[in-house]
Design goal:
InterPro entries: Amidohydrolase, Bact_exopeptidase_dim_dom, Peptidase_M20, Peptidase_M20_dimer. This is M20 family metallopeptidase. Pfam families: M20_dimer, Peptidase_M20. The chain has 430 residues and is α+β, with helices and mostly antiparallel strands. Helix content is 37%, strand content 29%. It has an 8-stranded mixed β-sheet with strand order 1-2-6-3-9-20-10-19, sandwiched between helices. Strand 1 and strand 2 form a beta hairpin. Bound molecules: zinc ion (2 copies). One zinc ion binds next to loops.
């Protein structure tokens, strides 16, 4: 028993010592707020698509260098990594922001409205920070400046990861994700834990939201071809009809969530988004193609849902005398918050936001490639409120839309929360 008690006492004592940095962080966050807002507006006006964040990356790299950090550029194409060496030994804590914008034409009437356009998959389009990554970059630049101001007192080092292409690159023959590529290039090797946030348009500014365990979904693509036998539409008995077979298969997929998934644990989604087949009233075609998206929470559920999709489609096709080719393309894994790290991080969020402003959120069926970092080392990902207080979350424009809007008065809380995570984690690790 004695052996157990000593480390516990030691841990709690060291964590108190670290919290002495919090007032300094608060002062720093107050002082930097207007700069963070200014940076965000500049990024908002000059958004760049994934793997093309050249201007953004240069501003970030120059800023980190001006703070005395070791900076590496062109990590995973346009990524920037800065390391702030603390004055005392301790862990390497990583913080991450994503830098990319989306092919969306902004409809907001703002003095810093996006001016950029681009060609995306052969189409002319506006470019917009319609997911709020402009605020992530600005907030993390603010954190870098605040923590650099107290680097002699830091018991460990901080790795600032500015990643490209969180929204993914989907070009003919190329599918890639910024975080995945950064991991492949070794960015997580010397990291002990990683923290990140996403501004959230449906959560009031001044609040932070989190969830322990699976938080955001894994996203996988479904591609199916059902092949039958072509015939005259007037004599269906001489066909193997892929349209009827595809219809049965789609209905069969509905039983995965109602009969195979334990709905008391985590939700899941199987959506067929398109059916392609046939050309004329009176021709039963040879082939039908289905495409869809699969959202699951955690590796175990993902494996179950993938297996049931394949079994249902293959066996329904076989029963009709048709052949099914089922392909599931894995994109992002589920964003899973390490339960131990989550429980240790809760006091930091409560101290930063106030007890009533820390909310446990429902699982989000969208995805985040932060999950690739979390597969390497324990990671904690939170949502930062970006909605005007008093609005109905169901009625505000959602992420990825032309009217997407973010309130800037929650940014300071983002700076404080990420900074608290760093110093509190260092305190616990001592
Ligand atoms: Zn997004
Ligand atoms: Zn996003």
């Amino acid at each position: 028993m004695k052996k157990l008690l000593f480390p516990l006492l030691f841990l709690s004592a060291s964590s108190f010592a670290q919290s002495q940095l919090r007032p300094q962080i608060d002062q720093g966050a107050d002082a930097i707020e207007s700069k963070v807002i200014e940076w965000r507006r500049d990024f908002h006006q000059h958004p760049e698509l994934g793997n093309k964040e050249f201007r953004t990356a240069k501003i970030v790299a120059d800023h980190l260098r001006s703070l005395g950090m070791e900076v590496t550029e062109q990590v995973a194409v346009t990524g920037v990594v800065g390391v702030l060496k603390g004055g005392k030994p301790g862990p390497m804590v990583a913080l991450r922001a994503d830098m990319d914008a989306l092919p969306v034409t902004e409809r907001n009437d703002l003095p810093f409205k996006s001016v950029n356009t681009a060609t995306y998959n052969g189409q002319e389009t506006g470019v917009m920070h319609a997911c709020g990554h402009d605020s992530h970059v600005a907030i993390l630049m603010g954190v870098a400046e605040v923590l650099a101001g107290m680097k002699d007192q830091l018991e460990g080092s901080v790795k600032f990861i500015f990643q490209p292409a969180e929204e993914g690159i989907y070009e003919p023959g190329v599918t890639s994700f910024g975080a995945k590529q950064m991991v492949e290039e070794g960015v997580m090797k010397d990291v002990d834990a990683i923290f990140g946030l996403h501004i959230w348009a449906q959560l009031e500014a001044g609040k932070v939201g989190y969830r322990s365990g699976p938080f955001l979904a894994a996203v996988d693509n479904l591609d199916v071809t059902i092949t039958g036998t072509q015939a005259h539409g007037a004599s269906p008995w001489s066909s193997v009809d892929p349209i009827v077979t595809a219809s049965q298969a789609i209905m069969g997929l509905q039983t995965i969530l109602s009969r195979s998934v334990n709905i008391t644990q985590n939700p899941a989604v199987v959506t067929v988004g398109a059916i392609h087949g046939g050309i004329r009233h009176n021709i039963i075609p040879e082939k039908v193609e289905l495409i869809g998206t699969i959202r699951t929470f955690g590796d175990e559920q993902q494996a179950l849902v993938h297996r049931r999709i394949t079994e249902i489609i293959t066996n329904i096709a076989e029963s009709a005398g048709a052949k099914a080719d089922v392909n599931i393309g894995k994109l992002y894994p589920s964003t899973v918050n390490d339960p131990d790290l989550t429980s240790k991080a809760i006091p930091s969020m409560v101290a930063a936001a106030g007890e009533g402003n820390v909310v446990v959120m429902d699982p989000v069926t969208g995805a985040e490639d932060f999950s690739f970092f979390q597969r390497e080392k324990p990671g904690f990902f939170i949502m930062l409120g970006g909605m005007k207080q008093g609005l109905d979350p169901a009625k505000v424009p959602s992420h990825h839309t032309p009217d997407f809007h973010i309130e800037e008065d929650g940014f300071k809380l983002g700076v404080r929360t990420l900074s608290y995570f760093v110093v509190d984690y260092m305190g616990m690790k001592k």
